[in-house]
Design goal:
Rossmann fold; alpha/beta; single chain; 5-stranded mixed beta sheet; 5-stranded parallel beta sheet; 13 helices
Length: about 325
């Protein structure tokens, strides 16, 4: 798809104003959004708020030391192409510029039509790189995201939780696992069709997504069960978060067509601080036990993990029978 040149920001850097104008003129013919700079300081500041699609630089820029400037510039540009224009066309110099990371070189003075063709080529390459990155991100989402709820699935959750626990130790902050289970969800499938059940799970996913921060890790690990990893949240904040989430589901009327129902949510959570040497599997097990206790005490409530929960359960929620623990074991064996 052809892109509007007005939306293409191109930075041109040359210490000589007359040369700068000559470089910018053909670009303006094409309608590009061209920004020219003769000062390295101003150019560096501009790069803090501009995101150009191409940078064109004369090696004499930056007090005749454009090579050093180029060397410091390229690592910060990532996928932005850099074109060199210079009257020094020795093989040694051209090789030096390209080895530093420049994507093209054109000798000066240049033929404007050739110059513009090279610019278009660099922009096409950049577009293809962006499209490739977008495609890779979409593929990553297909692997990591549950398409029904928009939450993470269990494929990547183990590694994410392990990372958060290590980060909590490094920065001396707590990490929490919250586990949730829809109460009596079987009645939905018994009294309604499965499409209505899918609709409810999708709506719960929306509630969870709108309740979590970008730093949190909300996931669906199967059926009507959900897990959220909360980082850097004190106990009072966790209790408030869980209770608000429980109340939002309780107050929701799930309605689609002729079907309508109210449902509740049971929640269990477990928290560790940076001083505890607890593995991801154990943290999830604790949250699982707290969830089981919330169910045992009548559902539609929030329970924090207590060590007594391990002694209270009667085998209906054993470690071996917990779906999430089984998945974690599988991920550990294949990691």
């Amino acid at each position: 798809m052809k892109r509007d040149p007005k939306n293409r920001c191109i930075l041109v850097l040359d210490e000589d104003q007359d040369t700068l104008d000559l470089l910018m003129e053909p670009l303006r013919w094409e309608g590009y959004d061209v920004r020219g700079f003769t000062s390295p300081q101003i150019a560096s500041e501009a790069l803090n708020y501009l995101r150009p699609q191409l940078v064109i630089i004369d090696p004499d820029f930056s007090e005749n030391d454009g090579v050093a400037f180029l060397e410091s510039l390229i690592p910060t540009l990532q996928t932005i192409p850099v074109m060199i224009t210079s009257s020094d066309v020795t093989t040694e110099k051209i090789t030096q510029y390209l080895d530093l990371g420049a994507t093209d070189f054109i000798s000066s003075p240049f033929v404007p039509l050739e110059f513009l063709a090279r610019v278009r080529t660099q922009l096409r390459v950049r577009d293809m790189q962006e499209e490739l990155l977008e495609t890779n991100q979409k593929l990553q989402n297909l692997v990591e995201i549950d398409d029904l709820t928009g939450l993470f699935n269990m494929r990547s959750l183990y590694q994410k939780l392990e990372f958060e626990i290590e980060r909590s130790k490094r920065f001396s902050r707590p990490v929490t696992v919250v586990m949730m289970d829809m109460d009596r969800f079987k009645s939905v499938n018994d009294g309604h069709d499965h499409l209505f059940g899918s609709y409810i799970l999708s709506e719960v996913g929306k509630i969870i997504r709108s309740s979590t921060r970008t730093v949190d890790i909300p996931a669906r690990y199967g059926g009507d069960e959900f897990l959220i990893v909360l980082s850097e949240t004190p106990l009072s904040g966790i209790e408030f978060f869980c209770e608000r989430l429980r109340k939002r589901v309780e107050d929701m009327v799930f309605a689609q067509g002729k079907d309508a129902i109210r449902l509740t949510l049971s929640i269990g959570f477990a928290t560790i601080d940076h001083n505890e040497n607890v593995q991801p599997k154990e943290l999830v097990r604790r949250a699982d036990m707290a969830l089981y206790e919330a169910k045992r005490q009548g559902r539609n409530r929030v329970m924090a993990y207590q060590i007594d929960h391990d002694r209270l359960h009667t085998g209906g929620r054993t470690l071996e029978k917990s779906a999430v623990i089984s998945l974690f074991d599988k991920k550990r064996k294949t990691a």
